[in-house]
Amino acid sequence: MIESKKPMASLGDTAHRFKQQAGEQAASLVQSGMVIGLGTGSTAIFATRRVAARIHSGDLSGIVAIATSRASETAARCLGIPMLTDDIPREIDLTIDGADEVDPAMNLIKGGGGALLREKIVAQASRREIIVVDAGKLSPRLGTHWLLPVEVLEFGWRSQLRLLESLGAIVTPRIADDNLYRTDQGNIILDSRFGPIPDPTGLAGKLEAHAGLVGHGLFIGLASDVIVAGEAGIRHLHRGVEQAVD
Ligand SMILES: O=C[C@H](O)[C@H](O)[C@H](O)COP(=O)(O)O
């Protein structure tokens, strides 16, 4: 079990250092010949950079990667990581991704950066989904600190907004540059404040039952590993079991 230690706000500037530590620790788990998934966000990028450095130093060979967003793909290509395009030809050995909130059962809220749908596709195709976070992301219950992003088609999007409200959320359409934010798929994000979610699995099921609701940021049972860095050092849990960290 991972226990919440500190609220996100109290981490301040040190969060950046912890993100780096978590991301780089995860990159050490990549082995030559692997197909890897590259996550999205300010924590996963540290893993991507370290993987690129290991490739260029000759420490890793035969790596091919798939990105969880256009932004990650651009970054990885710039770093010289060999990339797959839009297909996942076989099971992904290992994916390293960030999260916005992690509960004690290693369930997650993701999608603060809008990449939730591709991230979930890649996570579901991965043998290992390694989540890298600073300690401020730990939460006793999903929804305590973070909004739940819900990706919806533009067609009929207000009906999805009403559905979310009927489930108890305060809903705000995400805005970018004074317009509705668009995901990599051209869809809309409805940021939904549920507060602490008593039954994330039940809520996920209700959301998935609705046409037009393309994805949501609840990642239930998808993380095989969580690597968390904080004042107490780096911890690594693999399927709930504490692992040694170098
Ligand atoms: O859509 C974005 C992703 O789910 C990110 O992995 C998540 O928001 C965490 O991002 P960061 O590491 O920048 O806090």
UniProtKB/TrEMBL annotation:
Highest taxon of the lineage: Bacteria
Enzyme class name: isomerase
Pathway connected to this protein: Carbohydrate degradation; pentose phosphate pathway; D-ribose 5-phosphate from D-ribulose 5-phosphate (non-oxidative stage): step 1/1
One of the protein's GO biological processes: pentose-phosphate shunt, non-oxidative branch
SUPFAM superfamilies assigned: D-ribose-5-phosphate isomerase (RpiA), lid domain, NagB/RpiA/CoA transferase-like
One matching Pfam family: Rib_5-P_isom_A
E.C. numbers: 5.3.1.6
Catalytic activity: aldehydo-D-ribose 5-phosphate = D-ribulose 5-phosphate
Residues that hold substrate according to the record: T40, G41, S42, T43, D97, G98, A99, D100, K110, G111, G112, G113, K137
Keywords associated with the record: Isomerase, Plasmid
Active site: E119
Gene Ontology terms, MF aspect: ribose-5-phosphate isomerase activity
InterPro entries: NagB/RpiA_transferase-like (IPR037171), Ribose-5P_isomerase (IPR050262), Ribose5P_isomerase_typA_subgr (IPR020672), Ribose5P_isomerase_type_A (IPR004788)
Quaternary structure (record): Homodimer.
Homology family: Belongs to the ribose 5-phosphate isomerase family.
Role of this protein: Catalyzes the reversible conversion of ribose-5-phosphate to ribulose 5-phosphate.
PANTHER family for the chain: RIBOSE-5-PHOSPHATE ISOMERASE 3, CHLOROPLASTIC-RELATED
Protein name according to UniProt: Ribose-5-phosphate isomerase A
Gene that encodes it: rpiA
